[in-house]
Amino acid sequence: MFKKVIKKTRDLYNLPLKINKIKVEETYDHKNPKVLNGRTLANLNNFLFKQINKLSDVEFQVYSQWGDDGIIQWLIQRIEIPHKTFIEFGVQNYTESNTRFLLVNNNWEGLVLDGGRENIEYIVKDMISNFHHIHARCAFITKENINDLLSHLPFGQEVGILSIDIDGNDYWVWKEINVIQPVILIMEYNAHFKLNPWTIPYQADFVREVGNFKMNYWGASLQSLYDLSKEKGYSFVGCNSAGNNAYFVRNDKLGTIKAITPAEGYEFAKFRETRNAKGEWISDRDRLQTMKNLEVYNTQREQLEKIG
Q: How far apart are CA 298 and CA 104, in angstroms?
């Protein structure tokens, strides 16, 4: 019965809210009813869901694009994280992100990086920077500069959560990182690659909206990220239901959380980003076909190949 109640509460809470005809997004975070409702849901999830079948059981959305706020809140209640710090890449202006609710609700300290200077200026001027320990830096992230960017953090080298979402060289950037070992890692994966061990070949200036690249052609598959996580001492614990974020926990902090395989945790992307010449959405079965003959790097064979 309690689980039915929380589901109804979650569904109601995710509806667009208005107060006195003022959009919720225009109110300060602590006065935002979505934040207050999110705090209630986090407490209910922690009380009701001691064990879960998959991460989507505890999803809810406050500032995350999908249900990741709920997943993060559930995980941090079950994992020992001595240093309440986070880093997030590719945040745009930080109004929609995986870590903003963590900042507001749990008072963690964080560093966010984005390649757009106007985005960083927005964050610095936002009320979030006045009331919380958030540091914002402008940087276009590559595997060549990532360790330098992370070598002198404002809160030290012990990091609780790292969230990587740069729509491109995500695999190569994580592979290169050797100056921090976050307890929890959130990695965006390309569900269109299915369970093939693929990533895009490294290209330092890759931007998927530029040039001849297809919107579906970016990032790495869940399988490639899983293989890399094993090399780096992490366990895969699941994905969000939208099919874009995968969660990994450092092995020494796993505790009672169950490690699973890519086949057990894979979620196909529920969202669509590509249209055909007629302006129609590409069907699920045709997404891979939009990338036919494009080059990918097979991370298991360590060689380039074309999507057939």
A: 40
How far is C-alpha 68 from the chain's CA centre? 7
Interval 96-100 mean pLDDT? 96
Is 108 a member of any domain? yes
Provide the CATH number for the domain around residue 226: 3.40.50.150
In which domain, by residue range, is 182 found?
81-306
Count helices and strands in the chain by DSSP H and E runs:
10, 12
Residue 81: closest CA among 258, 260, 254? 254
Looking at the 3D structure of the chain, how many domains does it have? 1
| pTM (2 d.p.) | 0.88
Confidence of residue 18 (pLDDT cuts 50, 70, 90): very low
HSE-up of residue 189 (Cα within 13 Å, Cβ side): 37
